[in-house]
Amino acid sequence: MPDVRLASPQGRWILLTTVLGSGMALLDSTVVNVALPRIGRDLDADLAALQWTVNAYMVTLAGLILLGGALGDRFGRRRIFVVGVLWFAAASLLCGLAPNAGTLIAARALQGIGGALLTPGSLALIQASFHPDDRGRAVGLWSGFGGVGAAVGPFLGGWLVDGPGWRWVFLLNVPLALLCAPIALRHVPESSDERAHARFDVLGAVLGAAALALLTYALIEARTGTWAVTLSAVAGAAAAVAFVVVERRGKDPMMPLDVFASRQFTAVNVVTLCVYAAFGGFFFLAALQLQVVVGWSALAAGTALLPTTVLMLLFSARSGELAERLGPRLQLGVGPLLCAAGMVLMLRVGPGASYVADVLPALLVLGLGMVTLVAPLTATVLAAVDTARAGLASGINNAAARAAGLVAVAALPLLTGMGEEAYRSPRAFDDAFGPAMLICAGVLVAGSVTAFTTVRRPAPDCRRPECRTHGSVMAPPLEGERARDEAV
């Protein structure tokens, strides 16, 4: 049984290193959007390159995050966590030194691999190290500090872009990693799952990531109408079919398809796809709209987006408590409608927009919607499966959210007719931004209808989330497996 107490020096070191590790990945997911206009200018990149700057990271992270957790269980959670931290730092260094857009995109894909190793590992280390009496509080502190990092991210990113330069958005990860890795090696006990074995679903992970990458390429480059686009679309669809076949027939699939036999689990993941597709598209385009069209600095744009994260950080735990009393369906139905209303209000944000009169009301309504739905979403995912599969269910839901976001970033410019140079023209970008917000609002309404018609109240003895406080706007919180002593 794990016996580290939270109040001990070792417990504080474990909490620090896990917060630093997960914080690196969380910061990158919130600050890169703010840096995109400056990256485009400095590297002479078109809109497609900016889309790939976001999506290259998301493709490898979404495709490999389930495999990353399994590797930690088998080969040692501390070992894989430290490898992920150092990998992420090396890829971040390459991002910061990238001489051109192609190198930056490749480095971002490598960053996603590091993120897939360290993100599930940070939570797993807490659950495997702390005494059961302290584990809930440790997870709460870990998620709370992560939320603070997410709130600081856009402000910090804007300050770095306007000050030292956008490259420091990535270079900042290097000293954090050099602090995090030695602390982990010195103070975190190694742990693994004795029930784990040497077989890994590498083929499934490769096929999943390949399907995402090929379909994303087809969407981003569709405006060119070349044979490469057609071939990528066909190959992506084939890879997706092959992924389903492998997961259905494999002995140890990373995503067992029988988990979708639960109608509730399937329905909540459909809601997740709708919600996080809209969020991914919104935060990609809103950071550009505020800088390209409204004319704000990166710091002003990053700071402007803070209300959504702050509201989630302050009220997500209370929203979860409310869902436990009332059941999740009401909040999962109303939350997306509030978010849709916030995106419709963003239609007021154009040239000469006022923050107080135009931007802030939209973000407050959007943030209120996010607070309303995120905690019940996680709770319903966990309640829809057996307790022993809670970590798997949470990982699938998290990967689905990230995949939905990357598809939205790839598809929205195509659907709204954005040209390759649209982000250089305030008028062209503004003309496409409005339709994009309406599309996002429509997707959210579809998610609301799905929730109202399919979600049911969980059983009273179902698994409850450990991550009560949440500040990330890009994906629902990860939940790990219960410690083995609790599961047996």
Q: What integer value in Å does the Rg equal? A: 21 Å
Q: How many domains?
A: 3
CA(first)-CA(last) distance: 12 Å
Order of helices and strands: HHHHHHHHHHHHHHHHH
Helical content stands at over 70%
**Do you know the CATH architecture of the largest domain?**
Up-down Bundle
Write down the overall geometry. Answer: globular
What is the β-strand count? 0
Q: Report on the biggest sheet.
A: none
Number of helices: 17
What CATH calls the topology of the largest domain is: Growth Hormone, Chain: A
Strand residues, percent: under 5%
Low-confidence parts: 483-488
Q: Kindly report the average pLDDT value.
A: 89
Structural class: mainly alpha
CATH class of the largest domain: Mainly Alpha
CATH superfamily of the largest domain: MFS general substrate transporter like domains
Write the layout of secondary structure elements.
Layout: H1 9-43, H2 47-75, H3 77-97, H4 101-129, H5 132-162, H6 167-171, H7 173-187, H8 202-220, H9 227-249, H10 263-293, H11 298-304, H12 306-326, H13 329-345, H14 355-383, H15 390-415, H16 426-454, H17 484-487
Helix pairs in contact: 1-2, 1-4, 1-5, 1-7, 1-10, 1-11, 2-3, 2-4, 2-8, 2-15, 3-4, 3-7, 4-5, 5-11, 5-12, 8-9, 8-15, 10-11, 10-14, 10-15, 10-16, 12-14, 13-14, 13-16, 14-15
